[in-house]
Amino acid sequence: MLAAVILTKNEAAHITDCIASLRWCDRVVLSDSYSDDGTVEIAQNAGAEVIQRPFDNFASQRNAALGQVEADWIFFVDADERATPELAAEVRQVIAQENKAGWWVPRHNYIVGKLVRYGGYYPDYQLRLLQRERARYDPARPVHEVVILDGEAGHLQNPLIHYNYDSWAQVHAKQRRYARLEAQRLFEQDIRPRPHNFILQPLREFRRRVVTLQGYKDGLHGLRLHALLAYYYGFVPYVRLRELWRDRG
Question: What is the count of structural domains for the chain?
Fold first, then answer.
């Protein structure tokens, strides 16, 4: 039994096409955080099952789905991702072999209408295909989740198609949310911001993406993206972390 699980919160614009790309799975289940834009009704009309729980963090959402959805294999897919027929065939083939506890899936990332190939955006492997009884998510990593796997993982060849952001406004909004979660994680680990963090962290992240990961090959579009990510990954979390310590007194 293979179940595709989609985490959702107000994904009415994406959910129909996402579900349509997963009809080859035995079950398609939404783990929904009480959407109020019609996502649930649209999904049910498209043949998906729906479970709901309040959102606390991504690791908890995925662990809850692993506990609730009865299946041998769970394939986590985001609402803005699409599975191709080639990926479907490969997934069916590898789960029949039963020699791995999980599989890393590559992604093609389309950001504001353009395929981004560098700066860490390809192959962008995600550990999404999991034997349910042999996987859980590290609760200490609420964002950019980490799977704790009881066994080995393999790597698939065919990518998910990820329509990551439709606009630059979406880039800013999602990265602000990620930065808040990252700051909370650092705060809970009793980490305090240091003056050098505000300068060196964003510079290191920009260099990593543009030079080490060859993000310059994505042209001006890529440079704009990688500069924003350096700001949100390397600077904003420490600003928020400083606020958390200040509020604590």
Answer: 2
CB neighbours of 13 closer than 8 A, spacing ≥ 6? none
Render the burial of 187-203: b for 16+ CB within 10 Å, e for the rest.
beeeeebeeebeeebbe
From CA 74, how far away is CA 210, in angstroms rounded? Answer: 34
Nearest-angstrom CA–CA distance, 114 and 93: 31
- pLDDT tens digits, 125-145: 999 999 999 999 999 887 778
What pLDDT does 141 receive?
Answer: 82
What is the pairing mode between strands 2-8 and 102-105?
A: unpaired
Instruction: Show contacts of 38-42: CB within 8 Å, 24+ apart.
Output: 38/12, 39/8, 39/9, 39/10, 39/11, 39/12, 39/15, 42/12, 42/15, 42/16
Place of tokens 């952001």: 165
Q: Which run of H or of E encompasses 241? A: helix 236-248
Q: Which candidate, 188, 189, 186, places its Cα nearest to that of 197?
A: 186
Domain co-membership, 142 together with 123: yes
Give the rounded percent of residues in the chain with a pLDDT score beyond 90. Answer: 94
Residue tagged 């034997």 (tokens): 131
Residue 180 and residue 72 share a domain: no
- Residues 125 and 181 reside in one and the same domain: no
